[in-house]
Amino acid sequence: MISNEMARRINAQINREIYSAYFYLALAAQAESMNLKGTGAWFVAKHGEELSHAMKMYRYLIDQDASVRLTEVAAPPTEGGNLFQMFERTLAHEREVTSAINDMVDHALSEKDHATSIFLQWFVTEQIEEEATVKDILGRLRLFGDQGQALLMIDNELAAIAAQMARGTTGTQAATNG
Ligand code: FEO
Fold first, then answer.
1. What's the CA gap between 93 and 76, in Å, rounded?
2. Nearest of 125, 113, 105, 103 to residue 53 by alpha carbon
3. Residue 149 C-alpha to ligand 1 middle, in angstroms?
4. 10-residue averages of pLDDT along the chain (178 residues)
5. pTM of the full structure
6. Which of 51, 92, 108, 136 is disulfide-compatible with 116, CB 3.0–4.6 A?
7. Ligand 1 closest atom vs CA 50
8. Ligand 1 atom nearest 126 alpha carbon
């Protein structure tokens, strides 16, 4: 059993995770409109990951006998911009998510809610990985630029990563179904 306040915060995070999925889907559509198929696939894979984060929280609330309260999800931004700007927005977004997760951990600890604190550790680790991945992509864009052959190279790399992520998702689903 968790407190009503802890449940409220987890419900708010479910909304943020679904918003994140929406945020990435908008970027996927933008990338596809720029003919960056690999980048589009990468953002679609991120969309799927974010939905799975929301579902982890959904399942935790149910396992803890707490109510799932779904609220309205905001529309994602429609700003355009080049590939570099798209990934800068991605990093800024993930940093906001990290901050929200950290606030939740602080709150769980303040309540001595060890179960939720342990549950949230997965998300703390995930945020480190997500920020590092985006910083790496931004570093490569800074190094090689986002035009011509460099753009094609990065788009191909993102396609390969997206394919790996898709295989990972399939594996998780198979494990869950099994
Ligand atoms: Fe669910 Fe990208 O954090």
1. 11
2. 125
3. 30
4. 97 98 97 97 97 98 98 92 95 98 98 98 97 96 92 95 80 33
5. 0.91
6. 108
7. 1
8. 3
Task: Tell me whether residue 149 is exposed, middle or buried, using C-beta atoms within 10 angstroms of its C-beta: 0 to 12, 13 to 18, 19 or more.
Answer: exposed
Number of H helices and E strands in the chain, helices first, is 5, 0
What residues does each domain of the chain span? 4-177
**Beta carbon of 6 within 6 Å of any ligand 1 atom:** no
Whether ligand 1 lies within 6 angstroms of the CB of 57 is answered as no
Name which of 37, 38, 145 is nearest 84 in CA terms: 145
Q: Give, in words, the CATH class of 4-177.
A: mainly alpha
Give me the half-sphere count of Cα atoms (radius 13 Å) on the Cβ side of residue 37: 3
